[in-house]
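Bug report (template v2)

What were you trying to do?
Predict the complex of my protein with NAP.

What happened?
Run completed; filing so the output is reviewed.

Input:
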Amino acid sequence: MNTLEGARLAPQATIGILGAGRVGTAIARLALAAGYRVKLATSKPAEENSLIIEIVTPGAEAVDASEAAAADLVIVAIPLHKFKDLDSHALSGKIVVDAMNYWSATDGEIPDFVNTALTSSEVVAAFLSASHVLKSFNHIGYHEMEPDALPAATGERRALAIAGDNSAAKTVLRGFIEHIGFDAVDAGDLAAGRHFEPGSEIFNGRFNASELNGLLHAVRLSN
Amino acid sequence: MDIGAYSFGDTQRNPDGSLGSTAQAISNLFEAIKHADASGLDYFGIGEHHTTTMPASSPGALISAAAAATKHITLGSAASIISTDDPVRIYQQFATADIISGGGRVEITAGRGSSVETFPLFGFDLQDYDELYEQKLDLLMSINDSASENITWSGTTRPALAHLAVVPRPAQNKLPIWLATGGNAASSARAGRLGLPVSYGIIGGAPHRFAPLAELYRKSGAAAGHALQTLKVSVAALGLVAPSTKEAVERFYPGWYNLNIEMGRLRGWPKPDKRAFDAQAAAPGAYYVGSPDEIAERIVHLHGYLGHMRHFLQSDIGGLPQEHFLESITLLATEVKPRVERLLAQK
Ligand SMILES: NC(=O)c1ccc[n+]([C@@H]2O[C@H](COP(=O)([O-])OP(=O)(O)OC[C@H]3O[C@@H](n4cnc5c(N)ncnc54)[C@H](OP(=O)(O)O)[C@@H]3O)[C@@H](O)[C@H]2O)c1
């Protein structure tokens, strides 16, 4: 699998982001600042987004969803209830980072997520069965992403959790997260993403790597 | 610069922590609107919210009553959740209120709502979220832009109108229709394209990060051929004014805490954190909590980024004592507004 070779992104790798909303554009600006090439897409044709992207994420390219899906690393930040609109074929073999949350207060009651013991990312992964689905970025508010991002040398910076079943894919994502301004903490397999879903202590708290490790350790022990 | 207030209604807390009545919340709100008018506040926005703690569900009814009971203040919804309502009915109610106001004091702000409780309440399907919003907005604008009472419209989310009368027409030629958004870039672009004034609900983070959105809004509007003076921006934010910043924080924090406990239960948020509050309550945070001097400076600072023409605050949350709400309104009108005008004139 090409994308996993060497298990790290090239410095000028292309990041594809599906969803140019609050989360998608915030991650895009961080990735651009770190030197990546960024392609943003929504459900609309690229030209409808070009002015938005030119002003809100200068330097990123407005593309169609299929082109964003072909990037080296793909981040999905669309409303969760639309996950079945994702093109599972175009995303096959790709590292796909699920930044989405199931929040009945804004998503309503969605049977796919209510009538199951699975985490929302496992439901997404079952749909994207040929992709390497990872969960991250879901437990930081979009408006905190840029203020909280810091260079690696700063020491006590904020940490983001990563859950996923493929460790090479997780290494790639770790490199990306560390490069754009956060420490990364491996939370375990994709199912372990439940420890930082809405309702958990980690969700929306602000923690550095050792605090986050400690919290993950504690929830694992109590299970 | 217009200075204003908005409210979703605020059910009071009894000393034992239980909730007071929703009827009292509406009475308090009505009193606050009359007080705002008498104090010289420019704008009051109402609802739409459908919870026991925030029961201002019916902006049209309240605005009609307020239109009769006030003289100068501009009254609007903040915002009408048009996706799950009938634009014909909304228009009729607001046009009626406009006539009662003497003409020219009533506005509609169209939004989607930040939560989805109106979908089960009125029997709509969340799967139709985007379609409902787009079509209802289109119908609302078609009625407003129509040269006559007779409206022809068709779509998939509501029965078609074939040359049917929608009456009355407002006393002013058209009702101002604002678009409410919480910071999604596509919504700013849409508002610009449609030539509608845009109202930013800024509930967290540094408000000046909305500057690129306001730029996007104005550029999208200009590209669609709309005149710059029709492309207006307003800002809705949380906040409370008191004689001193210390008093303002002491008065506002308990209600903020109560509201966040309640939201946390619904949305899985952690326990509210005083540090998070303090960070938002100080410049350049999103909560306009402070003395008249401080709040005026912060509004003017934001104006340098957004060029907005109206700034209005939601103060009555989580059981804010009514006297503190009323005093904040007085200070907004009599202390903040003159300072804002003076500072803007010096720029
Ligand atoms: N808000 C936060 O602070 C936060 C933080 C972490 C995680 N999250 C989660 O992240 C997700 C996105 O949240 P948000 O606040 O960024 O939402 P948002 O501002 O509403 O943006 C959603 C974006 O997705 C696009 N989109 C919709 N359907 C699509 C499709 N099939 N393909 C590609 N793009 C599509 C939308 O554009 P079009 O409709 O024009 O296609 C829009 O650009 C949600 O699941 C949320 O729970 C939110």
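What did the reviewer find?
The pocket of NAP is lined by residues A 18-24, 41-44, 65, 77-80, 82, 85, 99-101, 103, 138, 141-142; B 184, 186 (CB under 6 Å). Chain A has one domain: 14-222.
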